[in-house]
Amino acid sequence: MSLEAQKTEARRAAFARRKQAHAAQSGASAGVLSDVLAGYRGAPVAGFMPIGTEIDPSPALAEASAHGPVGLPVIQAAGAPLRFALYTPGMQMVEGAFKALIPVELTWMVPEIVIVPLVAWDAQGGRLGYGGGFYDRTLEGLRARGPVLAIGFAFNAQQAEALPLEPTDQPLDMIVTEDRIVQFSS
After folding, report:
1. Does residue 67 sit within a domain?
2. Which residues carry a binding-site annotation for ATP?
3. Among 16, 23, 127, 180, which residue's CB has the most CB atoms within a 10 Å radius?
4. So what's the pLDDT on residue 8?
């Protein structure tokens, strides 16, 4: 089976697990993420607005915005890295690419912490995204400029035994789930 076919199968299985976890969640699930971000008060943070069955980091982003800049990802073009637009709770938003909410007015920022959405993750810090490579290109570029903390935010159910990864797939430094933190050594 080709690597791409392996990734497709891993995504299919992970989407099913994520859908079940999303349906089963009760109440807020961003509390652990808020606790993690509290240790980095004032550092520029980039997060995401959830699409479909993604876990929702918005309560943690709202809390973080009281202490420092928070950004949301904006897709510029296929094959390009993401840029991050400043976000404050209650600001006017519009649907961007893939129906992700982005600020109407785009004021760019550069994060030191990136909260990354994902389809699946493994115990080695591997991440399987949607297949566009946006976060891989973005993290590679940010890391070339200096230290960046990449935090995957996902349900426990999204953990996979092992993921089919390529050399261009950027590792996560940490995973935060609805009830735990998993740190990875570099």
Report:
1. yes
2. 7-11, 127-135
3. 127
4. 86
Q: Identify whether 185 is part of a domain.
A: no
Q: Which residues are annotated as a binding site?
A: 7-11, 49, 54, 127-135
- Give the pLDDT mean for 139-154: 96
**How far, in whole angstroms, is CA 117 from its chain's centroid?**
3
pTM (2 d.p.): 0.92
Q: What is the pLDDT of residues 52-109, one digit of tens each?
A: 999 999 999 999 999 999 999 999 998 999 999 999 999 999 999 888 899 999 999 9
**Binding-site entries for substrate:** 49, 54
Residue 164's CATH number: 3.40.50.10420
* Full domain range(s) for residue 175: 3-180
How many angstroms separate the CA atoms of 120 and 104, rounded?
A: 30
Q: Is residue 82 part of a domain?
A: yes
* CA terminus-to-terminus distance, the chain: 29
